[in-house]
Specification:
Shape: rod-shaped
Order of helices and strands: EEEEEEEEEEEEEEEEEEEE
Number of strands: 20
Helix content: under 10%
Largest sheet: 5 strands, antiparallel
CATH topology of the largest domain: Immunoglobulin-like
Number of helices: 0
Amino acid sequence: MSGKIYRIKYRAANDVNPSDYTDATSIALADLPPAPNAPTKIDALSTETKIVLQWTAPTVSSSPGGDIIGYRLEMDDGLGGDFITVYDGYNAPSMIQFVVGGSPGTYPITPGRGYRFKISARVFNGLGPESSMTTIYSCTKPVGVQAPTLGTVLSNSMQIKWVEPTSNGACPILGYSMLMDDGLTGNPTVPVTMSNTVINYFVPTLRDVTISLNTANLGRTYTFKLRVDNLEGTSTSVDTSFLFGIAPSKPPAGPTLIS
């Protein structure tokens, strides 16, 4: 395709005379653009009531008729309803971000809903195919994840406790998981297991875990990190360390006088 833009007009004719020409129509000798990638959320700029979207321009090859000149962005109501057009741009090829919600709030956002979005690119001849649909949640990652605390310590186990974060970010907590080190490195990267199963996801009521440890490791200091997940993602606590140790046994007898 050359990408050139042509102006075309035509007229009818019979044995008497030709008619006047139609008004000219401009047509580009270029393909419609491919579907863009689905829009994504800019987490750092979004809140529970505002979603900041961004997207990338699809690659085109026929200029100027095949150049991107704008985009159409559509979304639903967060409840699976019909799509509406929230942005329909012409002569704005560099417009690759859009905000829904916020204050004063165009297309208000309800915290905790999952909104569906799709986008298509526009060239001189019209709109190309839509992107795949993506669901973006009007929430943030959990906020205020506190460090875990130490519970009961036995000669072969440690109980680690935690509390729920100060805010779930407007999306329900999916669950908790714990990372720990080997008692030597201070770098908690090993998933904690309970009954040989990694604790993670779909147990939002879980508030403690008892970790089986080797008695030979008494005296080591273990470091832990709590992870909390919701639909938006994962937040973590600061690292915290606890000594794996127990009080000594009662001496067999009271003190005696050494003469």
